[in-house]
Amino acid sequence: MRGRSPAEQVSILSERCVDVIAAGELERRLAQRPALRVKLGIDPSGPLLHLGHAVVLRKLREFQDLGHQAILVVGDFTARIGDPTGRPDSRKPREPAQIASDMASYAAQAALILDMDRAQVRYNGEWLGKLDFADVIRLSAKVTVARMLERDDFTKRHLAGVPIGLHEFMYPLAQAYDSLFLESDVELGGTEQLFNLLMGRRLQEEHAQAPQICMTLPILEGTDGIQRMGKSLDNYVALRDDAPSMFGKIMSLPDHLLERYWRLASGVTAARCDSVLADLAAQRLSPRDAKLALAQEIVSLYHGRDAGAAAAENFRKTVVRKEMPETIPEFSLGSGVDGAAITKVIVELGWAKSAREAQRLVQQGAVKIDGARCEDIRRTEASWIGKVIQKGNHQYARIGRRP
Question: Is residue 382's pLDDT more than 90?
């Protein structure tokens, strides 16, 4: 996509954005400089990146493809504070060791979308960790409490009498300081991040830097169809999910999310999205077939076209035609589990975190043994070896002998 005029670039880069503050400034800056510094920050709140993160990561990749410098800021320092955005209460502070563990593979996961040869990965502990108390006082003097209370979530908590910690006011300032330190031209984020992005713009102006352009993208709902995608809500599709799991999660989406996922998560052109959605609206395409095509596109993005086609065929075989998949992974049970109740086997397979959760799966009819639904939470076998256990429509395990 290189060689585009500033106006063409603004048109391309504004696609799918909710806010562009300010598009005129962006075009002028593109005319002045061939390569802008474009920043995206992600705090490690868990070990996995998911399709919600991918919405903004793909926009960062568009900047890369137009010849701009991508800067991925991993918030190892800001994660200790915890982003208060959208929270009804304070986040608990996180321990550095847990943060380090969570962010260990972020760059490798981001590489599924970004060209890491043309990207910088920075950790904001590099500069925030070096500030002393005098620096923090000088920084906080730039913003009033009234300004902080303009944030919708802070306002709601203040009016409701819910405590707001002073450290929470520091989060937008810390994120803003990232922009000041990195001299970013553009910062990307979800719509909930607009206040923080504008804080960076203001801080840059206070220090005689050219203020960054702020670009926000929609927040992607999770597979429950209600709340934003998040690891804590267990409604996410991880970028590292294997192809069958990823395909199955997309197929579980409620129909009303089809347009959102086609536009924000499929990676196809706007013209292709428009065509699919027009066919769906005119009932030339059923919701299930639109979902099948969507799932294949998303799996292809992260696993390749062959894997996408194979996952689609596997779904048709196992779910539509109710056949067993050709390849079933084999698992060996731990000592004392062979001959135990099905709930213990499910926990051993990693399909449930507790016996209670495993019981719920059985009671909901989500578990099959050799193709037959298991309805008894006390079901046992003299030996589980050779049995095929199934959870839902997409997870299978053949029980093998212990080595």
Answer: no
